[in-house]
Structures are given as structure tokens and as C-alpha cells.
Specification:
The complex is a heterodimer. By secondary structure, chain A is of the alpha/beta class. Chain A has helices spanning 18-31, 49-54, 73-87, 98-110, 220-228, 237-241, 272-278, 295-298, 307-324, and strands at 5-8, 11-12, 15-16, 36-42, 59-64, 91-95, 116-119, 121-125, 128-135, 140-146, 151-155, 172-175, 186-191, 205-209, 232-235, 262-266, 283-288, 301-304. Chain A folds into two domains: 4-175, Rossmann fold (3-Layer(aba) Sandwich), CATH 3.40.50; 205-323, Rossmann fold (3-Layer(aba) Sandwich), CATH 3.40.50.1220. Chain A is built from nine helices and 18 strands. In chain A, strands 7-11-6-1-4-5-12 form a seven-stranded parallel sheet, sandwiched between helices. Chain A has a five-stranded parallel sheet with strand order 15-14-16-17-18. A three-stranded antiparallel sheet of chain A has the order 8-9-10. In chain A, helix 3 (73-87) crosses helix 4 (98-110). The N and C termini of chain A lie far apart (46 Å). The model of chain A has no long low-confidence stretch (mean pLDDT 94). Chain B is α/β, with parallel strands linked by helices. Chain B is 28% helix and 31% strand. Chain B has helices at 35-51, 66-75, 94-105, 127-135, 188-194, 211-214, 239-252; strands at 2-7, 9-11, 19-20, 23-24, 31-33, 54-61, 79-84, 112-116, 139-149, 152-159, 162-169, 172-176, 199-202, 218-224, 233-234. A nine-stranded mixed sheet of chain B has the order 11-10-9-12-8-1-6-7-13, sandwiched between helices. A two-stranded antiparallel ribbon of chain B has the order 2-5. In chain B, helix 2 (66-75) packs across helix 5. The chains are: A alpha/beta, B alpha/beta. At the A-B interface, helix 4, strand 7, strand 9, strand 10 and strand 13 of A face helix 3, helix 4, strand 9, strand 10 and strand 11 of B. Strand 13 (186-191) of chain A pairs antiparallel with strand 11 of chain B. Chain A: This is Electron transfer flavoprotein large subunit.
Chain lengths: 325, 257
């Protein structure tokens, strides 16, 4: 059954986030041959539309308004409401990002619809579109179907492969005018605490430190390794509690859940609380002095040793590899 | 100030998960107040102590949730409400929970509603914003700081590690992120007092709702455990050899670099 499916593209620092392309791929599966329409919202975002088409959107709707420069639930809801009234889609896909998590339940309530959050896989089986999502902090998974109304879902970054980028794809780019009014929350300031560039939830590589890092300075070699691999730095609750780094880096049951291609755990013992946030990473490397540390049970590769000896050597080796390839 | 907290009783996910008859087995498992809801309860108590008023903790669940409600009362909440829909509604999802809570709250003239930003069992994070939308009030999710001055509110919000400073006003719903506060442990006198505090129990009927008004829009068709990971490879030899081998394995075997 062909369906028309909308996706919400997400912009950060003037560029589209990868999850925008992953949402298009998920939408293609849900659409079953129907049209996939990406919506991009902001103050000045028109120039990004072509990239969405290159990643598989059949059409792009641009909603520009000065009051949409910063995300607010009221502003974005008004923009999306206008688009949905015009397009009457049968499915909607957002990224399961700070924005998607904040906005999607509001819209689901407005439209009296269900919402399947944090989807890691979409498939068509036996005439149903089936969504897989983690529950119990990734210790189990559930498969869900939508029984009534829209197929409204948010997809977890880094789990659904985007389509191959193809600049030869073509599609219409259309503007929708919206009158944005009555914003009840106003963003006064944004304080950047995360490192420039790579964000933890979308990082392909994460180098994470635990109590074994011993100090804030101890994170320096981890940062160097992360930068070298184009990745981000994360931390265990222990390291955050000890004040070695900001809570914004915390990975775990309380904290962020991540699924990078490569997770390098340095001086992390592997408490259940931490494993809940990273055990679904594709490849896990553990570096720890204690051969009995729990982290080795989930690791694909382990080195028993002092991280302050191992990490600098790793940096050297990766540099060599980069030169050769 | 009229303050409400939306609380969920959750399975402690530090527990091992066992699946029996297509469901996560609750046998012998520990149940707790959802950790993010503890931040919401603590914040509610602090706001009340500063501005006056009353804190009511509300949950949608079954009679077992009375234990967690009593814990919230022992922490310092004034009243508790258990909305027990277990026998009335067979298919439930976040649509159901939000609708029930909003129906309960609609005539309560709440100034401030607090909830956790996500529950650690289902992990959907939908109920807070859904309730705010149904009540027609603004909301701010994943907050780490809350300042109230009259009806003006300044909130700091965690956005994937960055901080947004947001201005808004009451009535308002906020969802708590880790870092908002340090939830207190119930004191012994608190536990004694909690036994005498009011705990009201309601059913769907009391809210003038029918099963069909709140029936789920989604359905779980299967629950499964992730495939067991095979034991990893602990590298051997001197450290610099191990590092060389690791880089080579990541490059050629795992192909992630």
C-alpha cells in the first residue's frame, strides 16, 4: 500500500544532520513506493533542499520564517501543522534527537495519533510496517505496529543506513508560507558546552573515559584520539560524578544512549548503568588495567593495560595507518 | 502554588531482563520510582518550600504503584493520586497514559507540572509533552535549572549537551533531566508521616472516560533480547604489539577504521 510520508530535516550549524538522511531512508520503507516529502524549517534553509533530494526525497517543502531561526515547540508545531494540513500524509518520520524528542509528542497529541519513538529498524513484513525499538535501556527490544492513524515515528541516529547520495536525483522544491505567532517559550541564549563539530549521538567513533582517567587532564589523550578518528569523547557516570568532565558527556542509563560504529572504553569498569548506554555499539574496544573488569564481557577486543600507556600508542598507530591509506 | 508531578513506577533496569510468554518477566524484580521522576519530585518539593503551595504526585498504573507513591510522600509530597486503569483498558500506550493524565488534570488549575524526561523502561519520553499539549499549556523538556519569579519562569534546558536558556511563564509543564538536583532520601519521620498523607485512588469511570476514548494507537507484537555477544578477543603480548594488532584488527577484520 503506497503511502505519502513526510520527514522533518534537521539543521545544525547551518548544515543538515545525518539523521535527516536516515529519516528519508526509513520513510522510503514506510512509503512502500509512495511519495517521500522532506520538510526543512528555519530562517534561511532553502539552500539545503537539494541535498535532501540527493539523499532520496521526492520533493522538498521549505518553511522559512524569522521566528523559526531557533527551535521552539510552538513555532515548529505551527509550521508542521500547516504542512500536514496541506499534504495529508499517512506517515511522518523525525530524528530521535533533542528536537525530535521534544516536538513529536506535542504533534502526536495534537493529531490524536500514536507515536513510535526511538526506532532502530523499519521493515515490511506480512503486510505490516514493523518498527523495532530498544526498551529497558537497550537490554531488550520490542517490535511495534501502528494500529490506528498516522505512522508517526522518530528514528534513532546512526541506526538506519541512508540511501547512497546521488546528485542526479531530481525533485520539486516548494515553499509553504506560515504565519508564526504566539511563541510561549523564547530561547534567550544557547551555551555551547559540547566540542565543536561531532555530536555524541551521531558520532561514528566514541572514545569514552571512566574513573580510570583519574582527572580532567586525563581526558586530553582521549580527546586527541577522538579528534584523530573524527569522533567524539564520552564518559561514564563515575568520571562525571568525580568531576573529570561535564555531565553532558555521560553515556549510560541516565545520560546518553549511543550506537557508534566504534566505541573505545578507556578505564571504564563496565557498570550495568554504563553498559545500558553503549552495549549496542557495533564494535567495542576495552582498555582497562583490571582483567576482571566487566567491560571485557561486552568488548569485541580488549587490551589489559594502563590507558595512559595504551592510548598514546594507539594514537601513533592510527596516525601511521592514516598515512598509509 | 499548585504543583503536580507525573510519576511512573518502573522496573529497575539494573535487573537482568528475562522474557517469559512474550513479556518481560516481573517475577522477583525490583521496582522503583523512575529515576528521572525522582528529580521531578525533588524539584517540586523545593519549589513548594520556596513559593508555598502543595505538591500532588500522580501516577497511572496498578495498585502496586502505591508503594512508590508512598515513597514520594515520604520525600515530602503532600498528596498522591493513583489512577488505576488496569482492569478497564486492555491496550495501552503513551496516547492512553497522556489522555488519562490530561483528563485528570484539566480542571485542577495546575500552575506547574513536573515529570521525568523519559522512563527508563519504555523509554519513549512522550507523556510529558503530550499532556502539556492536551492541557493547552507550554512545556520545556530536559531541564537542568528552574527559576520562578511570580509567573515568569527561566529554565535551563539540556540540548544534547549544550544549554539553552529559555524564558516562559506559568502555567507550565517541565520534564527533568539529570543534573536538575540531588533527590533526597526519605527520612524516617518522613516515612512515618507519609502513612497518614492522603492517597486517592481513581478509575477510568471517575474521569468520565470510556475504554475507547483512551485505547492505544500502537501495539507491541514481539519482545526479544539482543543477540548474545560472543566473547571478545583479549589481546596478548607486550603492549605495543597489542596496540598494533588492535589497529590492524579494527582496520581489516572489524572494518570500522
Amino acid at each position: 500500500m503506497a503511502r505519502k510520508v513526510l520527514t522533518l530535516a534537521e539543521v545544525r550549524d547551518g548544515a543538515l544532520r545525518n539523521v535527516s538522511f536516515e529519516a528519508i531512508a526509513a520513510a522510503k520503507t514506510i512509503a512502500e513506493g509512495g511519495e517521500v516529502v522532506s520538510v526543512v524549517v528555519g530562517a534561511s534553509v532553502r539552500s539545503l533542499a537539494n541535498e535532501l533530494i540527493a539523499y532520496g526525497a521526492d520533493r522538498v517543502i521549505v518553511v522559512e520564517h524569522e521566528k523559526l531561526a531557533a527551535y521552539t515547540p510552538d513555532g515548529y508545531a505551527q509550521a508542521l501543522q500547516a504542512v500536514v494540513e496541506q499534504e495529508k500524509p499517512e506517515g511522518i518520520v523525525f530524528g530521535h534527537t533533542a528536537l525530535g524528542k521534544d516536538l513529536s509528542p506535542k504533534l502526536a497529541a495534537k493529531w490524536q495519533s500514536g507515536l513510535v519513538s526511538d526506532v532502530v529498524a523499519v521493515e515490511e513484513t506480512g503486510g505490516n510496517i514493523v518498527f523495532t525499538r530498544p526498551i529497558y535501556s537497550g537490554k531488550a527490544f520490542e517490535k511495534k505496529i501502528v494500529t490506528d492513524g498516522f505512522m508517526f515515528v522518530t528514528v534513532r541516529p546512526n541506526n538506519i543506513a541512508p540511501l547512497e547520495k546521488d546528485e542526479s536525483r531530481t525533485g520539486a522544491i516548494v515553499d509553504v508560507q506560515v504565519d508564526i505567532k504566539d511563541l510561549r517559550t523564547i530561547v534567550r541564549d544557547v551555551v555551547r558546552k559540547t566540542a565543536e563539530g561531532v555530536d555524541l549521538s551521531e558520532a561514528k567513533v566514541i572514545v569514552a573515559g571512566g574513573r580510570g582517567v583519574k582527572s580532567a587532564e586525563g581526558f586530553e589523550p582521549l580527546k586527541e584520539l577522538a579528534n584523530l578518528l573524527g569522533g567524539a569523547v564520552g564518559a561514564s557516570r563515575g568520571a562525571c560524578d568525580a568531576g573529570y568532565c561535564d555531565y553532558s558527556l555521560q553515556i549510560g542509563q541516565t545520560g546518553k544512549v549511543v550506537t557508534p560504529d566504534l566505541y573505545i572504553a578507556c578505564g571504564i569498569s563496565g557498570a550495568i548503568q554504563h553498559l545500558a548506554g553503549m552495549s549496542n555499539s557495533k564494535v567495542i574496544v576495552a582498555i582497562n588495567k583490571d582483567p576482571e573488569a566487566n567491560i571485557f564481557k561486552v568488548a569485541d577486543y580488549g587490551i589489559v593495560g594502563d590507558l595512559f600507556e595504551v592510548v598514546p600508542l594507539l594514537i601513533e598507530e592510527f596516525k601511521k595507518l592514516k598515512v598509509h591509506s | 502554588m499548585n504543583i503536580f508531578v507525573l510519576m511512573k513506577r518502573t522496573f529497575d533496569t539494573e535487573e537482568k531482563i528475562v522474557i517469559q510468554n512474550g513479556k518481560v518477566s516481573e517475577e522477583g524484580a525490583e521496582f522503583i520510582i523512575n529515576p528521572y521522576d525522582e528529580y521531578a519530585i525533588e524539584e517540586a518539593i523545593q519549589v513548594r518550600d520556596q513559593h508555598g503551595g502543595e505538591v500532588t504526585v500522580v501516577t497511572v498504573g496498578n495498585e502496586d504503584a502505591e508503594k512508590e507513591l508512598r515513597t514520594a510522600l515520604a520525600m515530602g509530597a503532600d498528596k498522591a493520586v493513583l489512577i488505576n486503569i488496569e482492569d478497564d483498558v486492555e491496550n495501552r500506550d503513551q496516547y492512553t497514559t497522556a489522555k488519562v493524565l490530561a483528563e485528570y488534570l484539566k480542571d485542577k488549575e495546575a500552575d506547574l507540572i513536573l515529570a521525568g524526561n523519559v522512563a527508563i523502561d519504555g523509554g519513549s519520553g512522550q507523556v510529558g509533552p503530550r499532556v502539556a499539549e492536551l492541557l493547552g499549556i507550554p512545556y520545556v523538556t530536559t531541564i537542568t535549572k528552574l527559576e520562578i519569579d511570580g509567573t515568569n519562569v527561566k529554565v535551563v534546558r539540556d540540548v544534547e549537551g549544550d544549554e539553552e536558556v529559555i524564558e516562559t511563564s506559568l502555567p507550565l509543564l517541565v520534564t527533568a533531566q539529570q543534573g536538575l538536583n540531588e533527590p533526597r532520601y526519605p527520612s524516617l519521620p518522613g516515612i512515618m508521616k507519609a502513612k497518614k498523607k492522603p492517597l486517592e485512588e481513581l478509575e477510568l469511570d471517575d474521569l468520565d472516560l470510556e475504554e475507547e476514548d483512551v485505547e492505544a494507537k500502537t501495539k507491541t507484537i514481539e519482545i526479544f533480547l539482543p543477540p548474545k555477544k560472543e566473547a571478545g578477543k583479549i589481546l596478548q603480548g607486550d603492549i605495543s604489539e597489542q596496540v598494533k594488532e588492535l589497529v590492524s584488527l579494527l582496520h581489516t577484520e572489524a572494518k570500522v577504521i
